[in-house]
Amino acid sequence: MDARVSLEYRVREPAGEPQGALVLFHGRGANEDDLFPLLAALDPERRLLGLTPRGPLALPPGGAHWYALYRLGRPDPATFRLTYARAAQWLQAVTAETEIPPERTVLGGFSQGAVMAYALAFGPGRPRPAAVIALSGFVPTVPAFELDLDPPLPPVAIGHGIYDDVIGVEWGRRARALFEQHGADPLYAESRLAHTVDPRFVMRLEPWLEDVLAAMAARSG
Question: Which domain holds residue 56?
């Protein structure tokens, strides 16, 4: 199955046989190019197959998004369910094509993309990923969409700006508390920034991701 039947995306090829995959979902109004440079920052040695999909909903004049805005913390149910299903189908197709299983796939994103990463990592019946990276996002609340947070949970990294005026820092704090309540120990950092990716946190994510890769290798070895 061609993964492009469900979503458009960019690929960053690994240097050799991939140890896993790193998938980054962009924020509202951006596209598959937005987080593509972040793949190199997180994985400079190109150990992972990198993928950045484009949200299926167009947002003129040239951007895309993952769901319509309804209320902060609560995506519009109709558009969210549509894009969630398409993104899940796309991930399944990527797994089939690359033979990289979900447990060796890191899901991450910024803003709306972080929301999608949470949903695709912990949605009902979803396979657990290797890890989750959530930058300036929130854990979504959608009617009849119950997240599966039963432990053990994969590693989770959460970064948020204290001056974020789009998705306030309290949403990052709530996510941290939620995962701690379910037995996880998230890597968590706040920055003196607004709604953006903190390059200093990205620097912390590189060794964190190394630990994730080491754990993946230990499980498969």
Answer: 3-220
